Amino acid sequence: MRGVEPYDPPTTVLVQRHEPQGVSTILSSTDFFQSEQNRRVILEQVDSFQLRDKYMFATTTRKLFGSHEPSSVQLWVSYNRQPMKAAQFMTRHPITEYYIADASEDQVFVCVNHQNNITHLYISDTQGLSFSLSLENVLYYSPEGSGSNTLIRYFANEPFADLHRVEGLRGVFIATLINGSVSEDNMRSVITFDKGGTWELLQPPAADSLGGTVDCQLSKGCSLHLAQRWSQLFNIQLRRMPILSKDSAPGVIMATGSVGRNLASKPNVYVSSSGGARWREALAGPHFYTWGDHGGILMAIAQGGAATHLKFSTNEGETWTDFKFSDREVYVYQLLTEPGEKSTIFTIFGSYANQRHSWLILQVNTSDVLGVPCSEADYKRWSPSDEHGNECLLGREITFKRRAPHATCFNGEDFDRPITISNCSCTRQDYECDYGFKLSEDLSLQVCVPDPEFLGDLYAPPVPCPVGTTYRRSKGYRKVPGDSCNGGDVESRLDGEMLPCPVGESNEFILYAVRNSIHRYDLATGTDQALPLAGLREAVALDFDYDKNCLYWADISLDTIQRLCLNGSTGQEVVVRKDLQNVEALTFDPISRLLYWVDAGAQKIETYAIHVRDVIRKSERDYKLTTQNNTVEYLLKGLEPGGRYSISVRLRNMSKEASFTLSTVPLPAPEALKILTEKDHVFLFWKSLAVREKGFNESRGYEVHVHDSVTNQTSYLGNTTETYFRISSLLLGHNYTFSVQARCLLSGQLCGEPALLLYNQLTAGASDASHSEGHSGDMAAVVVPILFLLLLGVCGSLVALYLRHRRLQNNFTAFANSHYNSRLGSAIFSSGDELGDDDEDAPMISGFSDDVPMVIA
């Protein structure tokens, strides 16, 4: 294969050389292998190799040291033609196959097939080496693996995944999930607007194509599901059109789908003008469809029979107009327009219905329908919106110039769509789950929780972590690669915390400041090392807390006193910011744990004693404040929500005193309390109070209680700093009320309103059998003989059906093998003597695959 410019020189050739051992070696050359110096071995012992723009992928099968499996399949990745490295997938399930689903936008989507034909979708970092779980149970087909025992094997020679990238928009993907056997009854669709960071069900339309109300709510498990590659191949008689999205019409999507709990309902045509955020039913029943003039005109022809009319729409599918394209009925096989979808000319491939098959090509020019060229007044500014109050995709607001839906005019082939881009503040949609975390099973919560399959320490410092450097400790989230957002409360809440690499036992040392840096000099080794501090300008005074391993210093240019703990517990932080003029010295008292400083710009030094008494929790605290200012401001920290405090301030000489009472607002109850039932336990989920309460610290945690209505007892289950809680040992037939309430930060008591959830879905199960035990003996003599006779009858019927099924299956297989060409993906069915039809005028139809748009019979 040839290289890809600009990542490879124009003369680059890559070769997969098959070795006698059954594996391959990947070689590259820039002079067609004329010289050894221009030849390079990329990777040896390769099973398969693939080139995707700036990425190179290869798989190998090797025995890993210490592994219980006989062999392991590994994925190797190269980014920007760097040396290939093994990718990291943190999972305990054996991996049988990899499939590169998408490698655009500096990230890689990989379908990982595990044993029992379970496939999960993983997403990588920019390098393509570190993968995190994005979506579980994705629909995937492989000729030698998942789905190979279905009829799809007759029509697909290559693996594929039901994952569609919405062209024209960054980070928007639509995927099909499978839950159980491979059937449309077990398939449903989900969409992401942030490159797999979060996934959600598709919004169902509010009305059908005739104006009737559609009774479908997401809260009841009803949503819109779209057909993709699997549905197109599986429905042999009436192949459904896949999702259509193009760069020529950003935000416009056409698809065949159904509304309900799965994909098995009646198929219709649906159109979205908002990039997948909202949908409407455009046409009833399956259709061929495409568009032209940059999405200015949509065209469709009904599937399932001969046709003489087509439908077109000039307002993005809101209304449709019929047009008669032929006086004679035509079997339509495909509806196309020129690549780029800029032209107003459409091409229909088919054959007349009332004669022997002969290929027919019809062209429809729609320029007269659109009228005059568009003027500036016919356009509008449009920006994608994901219906969550955030008009940004991957950290930037992209505004397109798009023709207004009700403006009847044509854009023209030379239409250049202007685009304006501006960065946005960060939101949850700009983040994905970090390495070792995954989305909770309830997709609506959009919470990243620790992946139980991750065996390492989620918060351990990296290795190596040299003393004097910093590392980022994850909070479970990482910004999507390529996302350009900045600022906002979410960024500070979800971004990992920068911490210094831990300092262990060390020799005696001296700390000294040189204005824009602070150094640590080791007296034993003579090593002089600058500490990892940011933003220093004029550091003039410093001291060290030996108990907590924390450094304090004053910066007279910034007028701040800052702190950095070298044990990695906290990052660099400002402890005093206000009313500083010219700090000349500071000292830390390890006994009282108070920090003192001398400010040369202040007039006199006064010492105040602040006494705080918690009326509710019966606790008291004292603070000391030394200042030279006439007006004193002091920030009381650690006050609990829902508290009542008596506060007094007095001079140390007891000459003056002032007191007042302060009440704090209680924390609200956690929102979106939901429950998820597993085999032997249940999970409670809720939204973090930090979303609404800016001052809420997740480290205070939540307390979980349960009330059993049968025993009329309330029990304490435990506390957690996460937004979920696992509960087991629930009794059948009992009704439970769960309570989740925020804890106090210091005292461990409760400081918030409780959120309550009634759970009564545990049925009596086996305990119901005890009520009927007394009657079982009387009925056994009658029921058992009847059941035995019924069982004999059912078995006989099943044997007869099985023999008939095998006979029909053998006949069909023999017929299909004699007519189907798997290499071309086509079939020829004739109605001549072979099928026992004496009519010489019966039509002969030559079908064609989706990969070969035109076949001449």
TrEMBL record:
Magnesium is among the record's keywords: no
Taxonomic lineage of the native organism: Eukaryota, Metazoa, Chordata, Craniata, Vertebrata
Sequence intervals crossing the membrane: 779-803
GO BP term, example: protein retention in Golgi apparatus
InterPro entries reported for this sequence: 6-blade_b-propeller_TolB-like (IPR011042), FN3_dom (IPR003961), FN3_sf (IPR036116), Ig-like_fold (IPR013783), LDLR_classB_rpt (IPR000033), Sortilin_C (IPR031777), Sortilin_N (IPR031778), VPS10 (IPR006581)
Name of the protein in its database record: Sortilin-related receptor
LDL-receptor class B repeat ranges, renumbered to this chain: 549-592
UniProt-listed SUPFAM superfamilies: Fibronectin type III (SSF49265), Oligoxyloglucan reducing end-specific cellobiohydrolase (SSF110296), YWTD domain (SSF63825)
